[in-house]
Amino acid sequence: MKRISIFGATGSIGQNTIDLIRRDPNGFQVVALSGGQNIQQLAKDAIDLRAQIAVTADDALLSELQTALSGHPIQAAAGRGALLEAAHRPVDICVSAIVGAAGLEPGLIALSHGATLALANKESMVAAGALMHKTAASSGGVILPVDSEHSAIFQLLQSEKASDVERVIITASGGAFRDTAFEDLQHVTPEQACQHPTWDMGQRITIDSASMFNKSLEVIEAKELFGLRPDQIEVVIHPQSLIHAMVGFRDGGITAHIGAHDMRHAIGYALYYPTRGDIPVERLDFAKLGQFTFQAPDLRKYPALGLAWDVMEIGGLAGAAFNAAKEIALDGFIDRKIGFLQMAEVVKQAMDALIKDNMMGDDPLSLECILATDFAARRVAQDIIDAVRAGN
Ligand code: NAD
Ligand code: MG
Question: Which architecture characterizes domain 2-145 according to CATH?
Answer without folding.
Answer: 3-Layer(aba) Sandwich (3.40)
